[in-house]
Amino acid sequence: MPDLSNILAFAAISLGLVLTPGPNMVYLISRSICQGRLAGLISLGGVALGFVFYMLCAALGITALVMAVPFAYDALRIAGALYLLYLAWQALKPGGRSPFHVRELKKDGPRKLFLMGFLTNLLNPKIAIMYLSLLPQFISPEQGSVLAQSLTLGMVQITISVGVNALIALAAGSIALFLSQRPTWSVIQRWLMGTVLAGLAVRMLTEARR
Question: Which residue, of 17, 40, 125, 141, has the fewest CB within 10 Å?
Fold first, then answer.
């Protein structure tokens, strides 16, 4: 089992990441608003499966491979930072839209909703970065099985992410309505999101490899 301090620290990072906008949040909100809460929750099931895939890959050694090759680590870190900067610009640019802005999407069946949720998460750079570069830093070989620690931390992340995303999917319509009736709040929300994303990107670009 990981040390309790490592579990709590990783849980805090997981919470921070799930609260920042990204492909998962945008997709789930869009689905919930356009097709209803049930569609959002079915999509979330696919997202959860994507988390499980990344967790198993990390636990079975892909993390160790990437971390052993400095170029691969740096490429992933830089690509992730650039992606966060792109998301920040999308939030801050003139005419930028909040993830809670209503988007018109055609209705999809349960199977496609689940598959699209899975693919959206599988191709999400934020999740790849977390499992390939952050998770290994919270594993201590002296605490026992590295596999068990990886799975434990992965389950912590999945529990937090699925729980928060479920609340977002269920409340997306109400939040979108609140923001549409209060334009100032929408602007504040976009600037807060953009600032946080830009800060994370700068930190990722300037951090030293541990």
Answer: 141
Tell me how many helices (H) and strands (E) the chain has. 9, 0
Per the CB < 8 A criterion, the answer to whether 113 and 39 are in contact is yes
Please, which residues have CB within 8 angstroms of residue 196's CB and are 6 or more apart in sequence? 20
**Percent of the chain that is helix, strand, coil (3-state, to 5):** 80, 0, 20
b/e per residue, 30-44, with b = 16+ CB within 10 A? bbbbbbebebbbbbb
CB 166 within 8 A of CB 41: yes
Task: Express each pLDDT in 63-99 by its tens digit.
Answer: 565 556 666 666 666 766 776 677 677 667 766 555 5
Q: How do residues 19-33 score in pLDDT, each as one tens digit? A: 776 778 878 888 888
Query: Residue 154 is encoded by which pair of tokens?
Result: 């992965």
Give the chain's end-to-end CA distance (angstroms, integer). Answer: 22
pTM above 0.90, yes or no: no
